[in-house]
Write a structure and sequence with these properties.
The complex is a heterodimer of chains A (about 375) and B (about 375). By secondary structure, chain A is α/β, with parallel strands linked by helices. Helices cover about 35% and strands about 10% of the residues of chain A. Chain A has a single domain, classed as TIM Barrel (Alpha-Beta Barrel), CATH 3.20.20. Chain B is α/β, with parallel strands linked by helices and about 375 residues long. Chain B has one domain: Metal-dependent hydrolases (TIM Barrel, Alpha-Beta Barrel). In chain B, strand 7, helix 12 and strand 8 form a beta-alpha-beta unit. The chains are: A alpha/beta (about 375), B alpha/beta (about 375).
C-alpha cells in the first residue's frame, strides 16, 4: 500500500510511539528462499515430488494466486531483501527492517509457503508440514530466538495432523497450532475434534490464519471477479468459523482450548456475537449442546489479531469496537512483509492509554502464548 | 450531515420512550410473507396447459426453500401459526395479524416459494409467472393495503426481464425479488439487463435472505445447522453488496436501489469500513468505483429492520446507529409471519422517534417510488 512507502522512519513523537514498549507481533511471515530450502527436511522421494509435480491445490494456477494481488508476492514493495530472495526470506534484513525498529520482543511465525494445509495429496502434505515445521525451528527460531514457531497442520489429514502436533509439542519449541479456515468442512465438525484434543492437552492455542484452498467458493453465490472481493472473503471465512466452532459446541467439549483468529480483522466480531445471541434464542432446540449465549464463549475463549486494523470513517468509532470486543482479547500483529502491513507506531488511529497499549501490544500475547 | 443526524437521534433517544411514540398514519411494512401451500394446490390454475400437465404427471411439488422449512420456530410466531396450512397462508389471519395489528397502511408481499431455486430455467419462469399472477389475483385484488415484489427467474436473466416487462404496468408490484444466494454473484454482467429493466420501471431490487442451495454459504464449507446457515446469511448479503458495487452496477444504473431484506443490520458498519479500506488499497482493479463503497451504500442500499440483530444495551445501539451514519437506509418491516419479535411492536426497541418516522414513511416512499402511483 502506498501509505507504507510514504511513512517516515521511526520517530519517538508519533501519537502512539513509546520507545519503552516492547512489541509482540503475532503475525510474521517467513519465506523460503527457494523450495530447495526444504530439502534437508524432506526424503528423496518427496524432494523429487516437489520438484516434478509441485503442490496440488484447488486453485487454477501452479505458480500464483487465483486473483492477482496488488503487488508481487503480496509484499510491501520495500520488503525485497537487497541480497536477493523473496520478501521475508532473509533474517538479517527482517531484523533490520522490522524486528529492530519496531522493537519486537517476540514474533509469532505464520508460514504460508506451499500452503501445506491445503495440499490435496495428503501424504505429500504430511511430509511438507513436517518439513515446514522443522525448517521454522532450524532456520528461524534457532538463529533468532525472538521468533516463535507455530505447528502448521492440514486438518483434512486428521491422523497425520494429530501425530505432527504431538511430535512438535513434545519439543516445547512451538507456541501454537495452526489450521486453515478453508478446508473440506467447517472447523466445528466432529472429524476435526481429535486435533482439538491434542492441542488442548499440549496447552497450546489454536491459531486460525486466513487463507488456504478448501474447494468451496469464497462466497455463497460463487466466485467473485476481483481480488478486492476475495480479500474481503478472508474476514467472512474466520467469522463463519467462529459460528461453526461455537455452534458445534467445541468450546463446551474442550473447556481449556483457546482460539486465535489471525489476519481476519476484528470489527465484525461484536456484531456477529449479537446476531448469534439473538438467533440462538430462537434455534436453541436445534443446538441444545450450546448451553450458554454464544457471546459468552467468544468473550472467554477467542482472541483476535489486529491487522488489517479497522479503519472507521470516524476514527473514534474504533474505540467503540475495541471496547465491545475487549481490550484484553486483541493481539497486535503486523503481517510483515505483506502489502497491507500495520506499523505498530501508526496503526491505531484512536488514542489508547498506556495500560491498554501494554495489553494489546504485549501482555495479552505474552499470557496467551506463555512467553517468558 | 451525518453528525447532524446523529445529534438529532441522540436527543430523540433521551426524550422518547417506546410508550409515547406517535405512530405515523402512513406506515409501510416492507417485508411480509404470504404463505403458498404448494405447486399443485395453489399454482395449478395459474400455469399453462404444458406446465399443468408436467406438474401433475411428474408430481412437481414441495418447493418450500431449504432455508425456510415452514415448521421451524423461526418461520412462524406461535400465536400467528394457523391451525391448518402454512405460515402466512390464511388471508384473514394475515390481514388481522400483520396489517390491522400494526396499523399498516401498505405491506409488501415477498413470496419465498422455491420457483427461484429450480434448475430448469423454463420451469422457473413458468412458476415465477404463476406466483406473480396468484399474488395479484388472490391477495392484491382482495386487499388494497397489499403490494408485492415481482418474483423473477434469475436462472435466465432474459426471462426475468420478460417477467418484469409483463408486470411493469401494474403498479401494485413495487420491487423485484431475488434470493441472496444464487449461482452467481449479482454484480456480474449477465444480470445487467435485469437491472436495466428494473431501473426503467422504478423497481428496486429486493435481495432477500434465502438460498438456491447451490454452494456452501461461505468458503469454509457446509454448516451443520439451520441456525449456522441463517447466521451466515449476513455474509451472503455482504458478498452481494460488494459484488454490485465493485462490478459497477450503481455506476451503470445510477437510479437503481437495492433492499437487503431479512439481512440483519448490525454487520453494516464494520462491513462499510472494511469495504472502504480494501477499496483504497486495491481500487486499481475497479476504476469505475470512484468513491468510497460506504458512500455508495448510503445512496443505493436499504435494509429492512426485522430481524434486528443489534446490541442489547441502549448505549451500544446508539453507537451502532451513529456508525451507520444515515437515517435513510432503514425500512420498517415486521417480517410477518417469521418469529423475530414478541408483543405488538415490530419497531426495534431503542430506535429514536425521528428514525422511526423516516423508516416507516419517507424511506419506503423514496425506495419504492411506485408506492406513490395509483395501482
Amino acid at each position: 500500500m502506498a501509505d507504507v512507502l510514504e511513512q517516515p522512519p521511526a520517530r519517538a513523537e508519533s501519537p502512539n510511539a513509546n520507545s519503552k514498549l516492547k512489541v509482540i507481533d503475532c503475525d510474521i511471515h517467513p519465506s523460503l528462499k527457494t523450495r530447495a530450502d526444504l530439502h534437508p527436511f524432506l526424503s528423496k522421494r518427496w524432494q523429487q515430488h516437489l520438484q516434478t509435480y509441485g503442490g496440488h491445490l484447488r486453485t487454477p494456477f501452479t505458480s500464483t494466486t487465483p486473483y492477482p494481488r496488488s503487488s508481487p508476492l503480496l509484499a510491501r514493495r520495500d520488503a525485497w531483501p537487497p541480497n536477493g530472495g523473496p520478501p521475508g526470506s532473509d533474517l538479517a534484513f527482517m531484523r533490520r527492517q522490522h524486528l529492530d525498529p519496531i522493537n519486537v520482543e517476540f514474533g509469532i511465525l505464520q508460514v504460508l509457503d506451499l500452503l501445506v494445509v491445503s495440499q490435496q495429496n495428503q501424504e505429500f502434505g504430511a511430509a511438507l508440514q513436517r518439513a515446514i515445521n522443522e525448517w521454522q525451528i532450524e532456520c528461524w527460531s534457532k538463529p533468532e530466538p525472538r521468533l516463535k514457531a507455530s505447528i502448521v497442520v492440514g486438518q483434512d489429514n486428521t491422523e497425520a495432523a494429530v501425530a505432527e502436533i504431538e511430535r512438535c509439542a513434545t519439543t516445547g519449541k512451538y507456541v501454537q497450532v495452526n489450521v486453515s479456515p478453508r478446508a473440506n468442512e467447517p472447523l466445528g465438525r466432529r472429524r476435526y475434534w481429535p486435533l482439538y484434543a491434542v492441542t488442548e492437552a499440549a496447552n497450546l492455542p489454536l491459531g486460525i490464519h486466513v487463507g488456504g484452498y478448501g474447494g468451496h467458493a469464497p462466497t455463497g453465490s460463487g466466485w467473485p471477479s476481483y481480488y478486492n472481493e476475495e480479500h474481503h472473503s478472508n474476514a467472512h471465512s474466520v467469522a463463519a468459523q467462529l459460528s461453526s466452532l461455537v455452534l458445534e459446541g467445541v468450546p463446551e467439549r474442550f473447556p481449556k482450548l483457546k482460539f486465535v483468529f489471525i489476519e481476519g480483522g476484528f470489527g465484525w466480531a461484536p456484531a456477529l456475537t449479537w446476531r448469534l445471541d439473538k438467533h440462538w434464542q430462537r434455534f436453541r432446540d436445534e443446538v441444545p449442546h450450546v448451553r450458554r449465549p454464544p457471546s459468552e464463549y467468544v468473550r472467554e475463549r477467542f482472541w483476535f489479531t489486529t491487522q488489517p486494523i479497522e479503519e472507521p470513517e470516524n476514527s473514534g468509532h474504533l474505540r467503540d469496537v475495541l471496547e465491545w470486543i475487549g481490550i484484553d482479547r486483541l493481539l497486535f500483529s503486523s503481517d510483515y512483509p505483506h502489502w497491507d502491513y500495520d506499523d505498530a507506531r501508526f496503526a491505531f488511529k484512536t488514542p489508547l492509554t498506556e495500560a491498554e497499549r501494554a495489553k494489546i501490544f504485549n501482555a495479552n500475547a505474552r499470557a496467551l502464548y506463555r512467553l517468558g | 450531515m451525518r453528525v447532524a443526524i446523529l445529534v438529532a437521534s441522540r436527543a430523540a433517544l433521551r426524550e422518547t420512550s417506546r410508550a409515547d411514540w406517535a405512530m405515523p398514519t402512513m406506515r409501510v411494512d416492507c417485508d411480509i410473507h404470504p404463505g403458498l401451500e404448494g405447486t399443485r394446490t395453489t399454482l395449478l390454475p395459474y400455469l399453462d396447459e404444458h406446465w399443468q400437465e408436467q406438474v401433475i404427471s411428474r408430481g412437481i411439488d414441495g418447493l418450500d426453500l431449504m432455508s425456510y422449512p415452514p415448521s421451524m420456530p423461526l418461520c412462524c410466531r406461535p400465536d400467528w401459526r394457523p391451525k391448518d396450512g402454512k405460515p402466512g397462508s390464511n388471508f384473514e389471519l394475515l390481514k388481522a395479524q400483520a396489517l390491522d395489528a400494526f396499523d399498516t397502511s401498505h405491506a409488501i408481499c415477498n413470496v419465498l416459494y422455491g420457483a427461484q431455486a429450480v434448475f430448469d430455467p423454463y420451469m422457473a419462469a413458468a412458476f415465477c409467472r404463476a406466483i406473480n399472477d396468484w399474488i395479484a389475483t388472490e391477495w392484491l385484488a382482495r386487499e388494497p393495503r397489499l403490494r408485492a415484489s415481482i418474483v423473477v427467474p434469475m436462472q435466465a436473466p432474459d426471462l426475468a426481464v420478460d417477467e418484469i416487462r409483463r408486470l411493469a404496468g401494474d403498479h401494485r408490484f413495487v420491487a423485484v425479488l431475488v434470493l441472496v444466494q444464487g449461482e452467481f454473484l449479482l454484480g456480474r454482467r449477465h444480470f445487467w439487463p435485469v437491472y436495466a429493466a428494473a431501473q426503467q420501471h422504478k423497481l428496486p431490487i429486493a435481495i432477500h435472505s434465502g438460498s438456491q442451495y447451490r454452494m456452501a454459504p461461505s468458503s469454509i464449507g457446509w454448516p451443520s445447522y439451520r441456525l449456522e446457515y441463517y447466521i451466515a446469511e449476513a455474509q451472503a448479503h455482504q458478498a452481494q453488496l460488494l459484488s454490485l458495487i465493485l462490478e459497477g452496477v450503481f455506476a451503470k444504473f445510477p437510479d437503481l436501489k437495492v433492499v437487503m431484506m431479512e439481512s440483519g443490520i448490525s454487520w453494516l458498519p464494520a462491513f462499510m469500513w472494511r469495504a472502504n479500506k480494501t477499496w483504497k488499497g486495491v481500487r486499481v482493479e475497479v476504476p469505475w468505483v470512484d468513491r468510497p463503497p460506504a458512500d455508495i451504500m448510503r445512496d443505493h442500499v436499504r435494509l429492512t429492520t426485522q430481524p434486528f440483530d443489534g446490541p442489547p444495551r441502549q448505549r451500544d445501539l446508539e453507537q451502532l446507529l451513529e456508525q451507520i451514519g444515515s437515517d435513510r437506509m432503514f425500512l420498517f418491516s415486521s417480517d410477518y409471519p417469521h418469529w423475530q419479535f414478541d408483543g405488538d411492536c415490530p419497531i426495534p426497541a431503542g430506535f429514536p422517534a425521528s428514525l422511526v418516522a423516516r423508516m416507516c414513511v419517507d424511506n419506503p416512499l423514496e425506495t419504492f417510488p411506485r408506492l406513490q402511483a395509483s395501482p
